[in-house]
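Handout, section B. The chain below has 361 residues.
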Amino acid sequence: MDRKNLKQTVIYLFLILGVSLLSLASEENKTFQIGDIKVAAGELRSVYLSIPVQDGIGCNIPLTIINGSKKGKVLVLVAGVHGYEYPPILALYRLKKKINPLSLSGTLILVHIANLPAFQKRIIYYNPYDWKNLNRVFPGKPNGSITQRIAFTLTEEVIKKCDFLIDLHCGDGNEALIPYSYWMVSGDKKTDEVSKKMVLAFGIKHIIIDKSRTKDITFSKYLGNTAILHSKPAITTESGYLGKTDEESIVRNIKGIISVMKLFKMIKGKPEFVSDPIWIDHYEVIYSNMDGLFYPQTKMGYYVTKGQKLGYITDYLGNKKKELRAPFSGIILYIINTPPISKGEPVFEVGRIKEKSEDCL
């Protein structure tokens, strides 16, 4: 080979090498930051997200950031919004050990226990310091009560920095609940379509088509709804019941998350879409108007007819005060299975099965 051809060949090889290096560089992930917490590409860090002390009350939110070595989407997983809902919490701790940041594309944020004060005190629904329900105060307030400050921090530092979000719930310590998910319909076609794919990929059979969530971004109330109003596709899932830590509910959460990760090509493999979803096009939660004892007369997952007696409430002297009946025919999504009942708290939830489920696919 003469010198001219050799020179041209060398230049060509350098060009090819340069293009390859640029391609590799473009696939590399960047450092991810939440607050003052920085996580390099290919790194896993478990840290506390601090909620500043005000009036002597503050707390920390335990979370794990797994920043993949390659570029990709940012998926947030939130457990423990209600501190007595254990299977999602345990699922995230187990999932943390399964994900290798070196083979991950994108970033996975695991909020292990969003409402740590409630978890520590084993309290259903509420934060013990201000008696507020975290999943009713979003987007929160920077100078509000402890629950409002938790919501504000999650909104600013977690929700606004993600591409997609899964809010993981289950039956609280008093709720006998079948597995189901919420597909929250916002009216934004692109967001709704991605959320629908997420809920199908998660794999739980019963899916509520929820069009009832507020569109007021200044008082979005719910974690998942807050994400959606910021154009971040999100779903809410329910897997677990009565504050138990059963293996089936934990594994269901893990399998669902991994399937969604595959949907967004964060890890290798194909998502496992639920093949026979049961769509619920209307639901209603029945609340108690008094304090006392509740006696259920049906079970979670049972089908009921309109007007059917589902339970009754007595006062603390044992006098029957109120019978509760089904508002329409449908399936019992959850029902309270412990005696205490308080005014303003839920007693059961009924869902109506959509007749032509294929219309939703």
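Note. The chain has seven helices and 19 strands. Compare this with the example in section A.
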